[in-house]
Design brief:
three-stranded antiparallel sheet; Plavaka; 67 residues; mainly beta; 36% strand; 2 helices
Length: 67
């Protein structure tokens, strides 16, 4: 465990990031554009929090991709 060996990182914590995206349906008025919501969160939260959708994942932005 390299973090615990280095004295400068005493009290530090490793926090992994979890990110994801998936295509979403939008109205016809957007033209020839597909939208993908981009989500992110931390990977060291309790499973019960993540499964219950209690702010374990946050919307970071929308990726707009022309067809």
């Amino acid at each position: 465990d390299k973090i615990s060996i280095d004295p400068e990182t005493h009290g530090a914590m490793f926090v992994p990031g979890v990110f994801g995206s998936d295509k979403t349906t939008v109205s016809v008025g957007t033209g020839n554009t597909e939208f993908y919501p981009f989500y992110g969160g931390i990977g060291n939260i309790f499973n019960s929090t993540r499964r219950a959708h209690r702010e374990g994942i946050s919307l970071i932005g929308f990726l707009s991709i022309p067809k």
